Amino acid sequence: MLRELRIKNFAIINDLSVNFDTGLNVLTGETGAGKSIIVDAISLILGDKTSADMIKAGSREAVIEACFDNKRHPLLEELGIDSCDGIIIRRNISAQGKGRAYVNDTAVSLQTLTALGDSLINIHGQHEHQGLLKKDNHILFLDSFGDLTKESIALQLLYSEAAALKNKAAQLKERIRERSQRIEFLRFQINEINSANLKSGEREAIEDEMKILLNLNRLKESSEMAYSLLYDSEGSCIEQLSNAASRIRDMLNFDPDARELLDIVDSTIPQIEDASMLLRKFKDKYDIDPQRLSELDERLEVIKRLEKKYGEGVDEILKYRDKAEEELKSLEHIDEQQGALEAELNIKDKKLKAVAEELSKKREINAKKMEKIVISELHELGFQKAVFKVDIKKRDTVMASGIDDVEFLFSANPGEPVKPLIKVASGGELSRIMLALKCIEISQESGVKSQEPKKDKNSTIKTHNSELKTLIFDEVDAGIGGITAQHVSRRLKAVSKNYQVLCITHLPQMAALSDNHLMVEKKIESDRAAIFVKPLTANERCNEIARMLSGKITDVSLKHAKELLGANF
């Protein structure tokens, strides 16, 4: 149960704290007073996305905090977050656009916040009834009522799988039609690549060798000169080092410290000899057949020509060949593939049809139940002679939603035939029909059908169950009034026996039945708007209901307000 909501620097709210109680909590106030801003703040607690635009002008950060009495929540226990003393959810929105979420001072992800919020609060918006104006939504309402949503989703998945197989079969047929030409083309490409006898890294090796050939004279001259300087000429490096070693040995006869110097020179001579031998090999390497350059050039042209067709580099060409060979093998066995695919598709289609027919039977059964329960709820909401029908027509083919074409039919007046709801229902009627569906949904969740409260002093809700889920109705009573408003108010009052209900309303009848009446006001302070929420005393409540009745407080409206409050006043 939501016990307290704290809002700071959000929209036009400076610093606001609102306390809620069990039973029916109503928030009233002039249009534009800021009631919806409070609902927006609660939506953020449920995981809605934040934006820097939500922060009050001139502030760096907005903070929204909700305190719940709910204890030992299983999701929090799973996450290792202590909730023995209740749950405190906090959202911080910074001017940089980054938001942070905390549960009992532990940072959580938006996904966790959404899952937690959904288990604590449900919000039913003022425009939600517009969904009834879309015929495609009617089947969703029916599936939700009959607890068939999972089966419907399973059918959609099966339909997607069948559609994918059909698409694959169509592509296969197209491939079969073009098979002969494609096989011939693939074989040509494979033979062309294979006849080139390419080797991985071949192009790089050719380019390296051509670089040597194009600079052959310079390489040969440099290698011969280096060999001569090191080994093969008078006064060469090896000759000079040998003479130096002889002199150092003479020094060693008189100075033992010359030993280290002799060792260094002696070790250098073999290295010079090794370098000389290697230079001789390089000299011989540069004695290349002049025709070799022409051969390499021709080979490089072959590779370049294949690269234009099949990809950059020998590795890419060979990779293309491998893929072509795989496709060729597939095409050569395509008849077998087609047979297997058609058999698989046939099985899938039969299963899809069977599942769709089974779901359709369940929809038929639940449609009858839904009609009776919706009519019963509509009676509670003031439609004494209303007729509600769930019309199900069968399609010849299975669609993603099955074989059923579902549409709600409605008649508000006796003697009038039922017609498509989307064509005949007014805004107020749609609101009540949606509320009826919501009441059914709520009753199914709780497992208890809510009853209308008694009209005596004992009708005030006495439960103090802190684990109550919170339901928020944001002006779902729009477009109704008079005796209808009385019916709607009593129905929501009945719902509040099993839930904590927060209702934003302009109906005085609703306000009169509240267990906790809060008035939202917008005031101008220091040339800036600010929102205030005030819990009303008995007299203040009477005055507010009088204002709601006539737009201003008069003796007549006060008298009417007291009549509405009755024993509650």
Structure report:
This protein is of the alpha/beta class. Helix content is 55%, strand content 18%. The chain has helices spanning 35-45, 74-79, 110-120, 135-145, 149-177, 179-195, 202-214, 216-232, 237-252, 259-285, 291-310, 314-332, 334-380, 421-424, 427-446, 482-495, 508-512, 538-550, 555-565, and strands at 2-10, 13-19, 24-28, 61-68, 87-94, 99-103, 106-107, 121-124, 387-399, 402-411, 419-420, 470-474, 500-504, 516-525, 528-535. A six-stranded antiparallel beta sheet has the order 2-1-4-5-6-7, covered by helices on one side. The chain has a six-stranded mixed beta sheet with strand order 8-12-13-3-14-15. A three-stranded antiparallel beta sheet has the order 9-10-11. Helix 16 (482-495) links the parallel strand 12 and strand 13 (500-504). Helix 13 (334-380) crosses helix 15 (427-446). It is elongated and about 135 Å long.
Task: Give a quick set of tags describing it.
single chain, 569 residues, alpha/beta, 6-stranded antiparallel sheet, 6-stranded mixed sheet, 19 helices, 15 strands, 55% helix
Question: Layout of SSEs?
Answer:
Elements: E1 2-10, E2 13-19, E3 24-28, H1 35-45, E4 61-68, H2 74-79, E5 87-94, E6 99-103, E7 106-107, H3 110-120, E8 121-124, H4 135-145, H5 149-177, H6 179-195, H7 202-214, H8 216-232, H9 237-252, H10 259-285, H11 291-310, H12 314-332, H13 334-380, E9 387-399, E10 402-411, E11 419-420, H14 421-424, H15 427-446, E12 470-474, H16 482-495, E13 500-504, H17 508-512, E14 516-525, E15 528-535, H18 538-550, H19 555-565
